[in-house]
Amino acid sequence: MATQTAAQRREQARRDYDAFLRGCPTNQLLDRISDKWVSLVVSALAAGPMRYSDLGRKIAGVSPKMLTQTLRSLERDGILSRTVTPSVPVRVDYELTPLGHSLALLLTAVKDWAETHIEQVHQARERYDGDN
Amino acid sequence: MATQTAAQRREQARRDYDAFLRGCPTNQLLDRISDKWVSLVVSALAAGPMRYSDLGRKIAGVSPKMLTQTLRSLERDGILSRTVTPSVPVRVDYELTPLGHSLALLLTAVKDWAETHIEQVHQARERYDGDN
DNA sequence: CGGAATCCTCCTTGATACTG
DNA sequence: CAGTATCAAGGAGGATTCCG
Questions:
Q1: In B, residues 18-37, which contact A (CB 8 Å cutoff)?
Q2: Local confidence band at B4 (pLDDT 50, 70, 90 cut-offs)
Q3: pLDDT 10s digits, A17-70
Q4: Tell me, what CATH number does B70's domain have?
Q5: DSSP letters spanning A43-95
Q6: Fewer beta carbons under 10 A from the terminal one: N or C of chain B?
Q7: Half-sphere exposure of B69 (CA within 13 A, CB side)
Q8: What residues 73-132 of chain A have any CB closer than 8 A to a CB of chain B?
């Protein structure tokens, strides 16, 4: 059995690390909230329940596929609840769970940091782009 | 002229919305911190300055390309500073700026939320996957 | 109305190899 | 040591179409 090559060792390390990252709560959460549409859906629902098509209209530019996909994954994670009213036509309401409201609070903290510091970031970028 | 199709209207809306999102501080921040390697680099540097290859070793599994790309973008945003010591061989140190340390604090808040609530998320998933 | 299934196209990621 | 250049692949996201 030959010694591992450097490439094989790197690949092994990468695999281990990927496994670690998948198990890391922080990265799981970051993956979730950084999804393009998640923060928009959560903040839209923070104000109160909404129907599928209301969300689609409020979050202009989202395709039905991505909206459904986003809502499903958030439902699966217990962030929001989905209620079907079997009228004709069908009516489906989405609403934040307590866990979802808690997440909305965290997103508010993120938003506050962003709004407080974004100007510093922009200034840093101008400096960086100007100098280089 | 012809009526726009639904897709065309949505594309226009999507374009407008993309522009809005690019200008939205919260989404800019989420884009930044959700990058696979950013949180790892920031938390690694939160403990103190490190050299390029130290980071590469500490964050196992990152390729030189991604490490450089991550470091450059964080430097551009004023999150960390890059110091070259022109010795032989060259020595390059990376260190968080005050802004970077502030960001590290936010990441700590995210981490705390994640560790506090991840169990609820996992339970919700099991319930969802079990029921379905 | 509220989706599901399919196809297709970028864009990011990462491997590999080379340089000052 | 600290990167850069190039290339290939996979997956995320969008368009389109159809169903209950």
A1: 18, 21, 25-31, 33-34, 36
A2: low
A3: 888 888 899 999 998 998 989 999 999 999 999 999 999 999 988 999 999 999
A4: 1.10.10.10
A5: HHHHTS-EEHHHHHHHSTT--HHHHHHHHHHHHHTTSEEEEEE--SS-EEEEE
A6: N
A7: 9
A8: 75-78, 99, 102-103, 106-107, 109-111, 113-115, 117-118, 120-121, 123-125, 127-129
pLDDT tens digits along A96-129 = 999 999 999 999 999 999 999 999 999 999 999 9
Interface test with A, best of B18, B80, B108, B110 (most A CBs within 10 A): B110
- Which residues form the domain of A89? 30-110
Provide the number of structural domains found in chain A: 1
Question: Environment class of residue B87 by beta-carbon count within 10 Å: exposed (0-12), middle (13-18) or buried (19+)?
Answer: exposed
Q: For residue B93, tell me if it sits in a domain.
A: yes
- The answer to whether residue B128 sits within a structural domain is no
Distance CA A33, CA A50 (A): 20
Alpha-carbon distance of B12 to A8, in angstroms, equals 47
Q: What is the pTM of this model?
A: 0.90
- B82 or A130, which is more confident? B82
In a domain, A58, yes or no: yes
